[in-house]
């Protein structure tokens, strides 16, 4: 009996301890908030959610948001020195393609890019401005606009012009001369070629070589008044455009060609060709300077061509020296005038078999001292001329021109 009472006491003590522990735990632990009711599959979400005011999506970007932008066009200056039609130009690589500003291209070739009508340049090229570029000889050339400037694909322009590229081996400069393109010479046209030298009353050499400025003006006036067309050798490519073509040539490149002749050419709008001795500019007395030659060349009235490098008699030179005279002259005249020459005038009219053999490698025409009337069917390296001296009167001058265009 006593033993049963002791067991009962132990059980009561254990129960008391368990009750105390449960009570202590309930006091220490905070009550968890009631969980929000999650709509069941049977209860639509709209019924379980509290109604809210409708929200309007933002249509304007916030101050911190950036608007999408076009990728920037990369424009990198081209380090190559380039001269187009006598003018130094800048070319660029625009997204990797070599290009030129449309305005700079137009200025160099004398094209009015603002005029939407087709325009004829160099006698045989048709230019037409388009919204995004231009149409050149039928080829569509599309430009790229960047920073308000339209850039045209330069290499495509040169190809469409069929423009030769001359590289100066010494300087690395590249020259592009549209007027130096090779062409087939139309046959059977009489084109009087006149030979002059100096134009001055300041006679410091052989008097017959110095045509008086007053006589020169009378001859230019006669050309204009009687419907003759003073052209260059380059214009023979489209000689059919002229009724009475005539070519005025001046040998040696004297300074009076700039001081006396050039103002008269400007006054009457007459074109002329000056054959320059390449080593003479700025080196010898009485000779035109490089600056004067360049100014005449870019005027649109004067074509600067070759009278060899040193005015050597070509019939006395061997093959190597002949080649040097022709090649060196071409390089220096291109450098001075900015345009590649295509005509070689033989000093004193003297030439050799080497001259005729090498001439076509560097030039398109070879000019003699005299011989009379030139016909385009003749050998282009044996072009005849009429000699105009200080003593040539206007009657003789008119006779020289009379067969032009026939």
Structural features, described:
The protein is α/β, with parallel strands linked by helices and 406 residues long. The chain has 2 domains: 75-174, no CATH class; 182-401, Glycoside hydrolase/deacetylase (TIM Barrel). 29% of the residues lie in helices and 21% in strands. The protein is built from 10 helices and 23 strands. It has helices spanning 2-28, 45-48, 102-109, 154-161, 213-225, 256-268, 290-297, 319-337, 353-362, 394-401; strands at residues 75-77, 82-84, 87-89, 92-94, 97-101, 119-121, 125-130, 133-136, 139-142, 144-146, 149-153, 165-167, 174-176, 193-196, 198-199, 210-211, 229-230, 245-252, 272-276, 302-306, 343-345, 365-367, 386-387. Strands 14, 17, 18, 19, 20 and 23 form a 6-stranded parallel sheet that branches. The longest helix is centred in the N-terminal third of the chain and has 27 residues, at 2-28. The radius of gyration is 44 Å and the shape is elongated.
Q: If classified by CATH, what would the architecture of the largest domain be?
A: Alpha-Beta Barrel
Q: What fold name stands as the CATH topology of the largest domain?
A: TIM Barrel
Distance between the termini: 163 Å
- Strands, count: 23
List the domain count as a whole number. Answer: 2
The biggest beta sheet, please?
6 strands, parallel
Q: Overall 3D geometry?
A: elongated
Mean pLDDT equals: 87
| Structural class determined from secondary elements | alpha/beta
Number of helices: 10
Q: Please indicate the percent range of residues in DSSP E strands (runs of 2 or more).
A: 15-25%
Please compute the radius of gyration using only Cα atoms.
Answer: 44 Å
Supply the CATH superfamily name of the largest domain: Glycoside hydrolase/deacetylase
Oligomer: single chain
Helix content: 25-40%
Low-confidence stretches: 23-52
């Amino acid at each position: 009996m006593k033993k049963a009472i002791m067991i009962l006491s132990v059980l009561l003590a254990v129960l008391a301890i368990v009750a105390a522990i449960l009570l202590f735990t309930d006091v220490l632990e905070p009550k968890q908030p009631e969980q929000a009711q999650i709509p069941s599959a049977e209860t639509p979400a709209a019924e379980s959610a509290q109604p809210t005011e409708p929200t309007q999506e933002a249509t304007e970007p916030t101050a911190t948001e950036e608007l999408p932008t076009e990728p920037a066009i990369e424009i990198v200056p081209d380090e190559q020195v380039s001269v187009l039609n006598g003018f130094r130009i800048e070319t660029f690589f625009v997204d990797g393609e070599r290009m030129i500003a449309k305005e700079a291209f137009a200025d160099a070739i004398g094209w009015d890019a603002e005029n939407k009508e087709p325009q004829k340049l160099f006698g045989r090229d048709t230019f037409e401005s388009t919204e995004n570029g231009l149409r050149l000889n039928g080829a569509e050339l599309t430009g790229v606009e960047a920073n308000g400037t339209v850039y045209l694909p330069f290499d495509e322009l040169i190809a469409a012009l069929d423009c030769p590229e001359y590289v100066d081996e010494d300087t690395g400069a590249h020259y592009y001369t549209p007027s130096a393109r090779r062409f087939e010479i139309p046959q059977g046209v009489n084109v009087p070629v006149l030979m002059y030298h100096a134009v001055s009353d300041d006679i410091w050499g052989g008097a017959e070589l110095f045509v008086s400025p007053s006589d020169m003006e009378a001859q230019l006036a006669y050309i204009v008044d009687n419907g003759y067309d003073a052209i260059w050798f380059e214009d023979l490519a489209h000689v059919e455009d002229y009724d009475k073509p005539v070519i005025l040539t001046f040998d040696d490149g004297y300074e009076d060609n700039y001081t006396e002749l050039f103002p008269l050419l400007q006054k009457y709008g007459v074109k002329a060709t000056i054959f320059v001795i390449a080593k003479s500019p700025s080196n010898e007395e009485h000779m035109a300077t490089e600056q004067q030659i360049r100014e005449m060349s870019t005027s649109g009235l004067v074509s600067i061509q070759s009278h060899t490098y040193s005015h050597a008699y070509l019939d006395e030179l061997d093959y190597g020296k002949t080649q040097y005279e022709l090649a060196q002259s071409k390089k220096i005249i291109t450098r001075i005038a900015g345009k590649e020459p295509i005509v070689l005038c033989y000093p004193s009219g003297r030439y050799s078999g080497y001259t005729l053999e090498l001439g076509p490698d560097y030039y398109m025409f070879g000019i003699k001292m005299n011989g009379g009337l030139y016909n385009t069917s003749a050998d282009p390296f044996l072009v005849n001329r009429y000699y105009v001296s200080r003593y040539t009167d206007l009657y003789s001058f008119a006779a020289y021109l009379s067969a032009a265009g026939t």
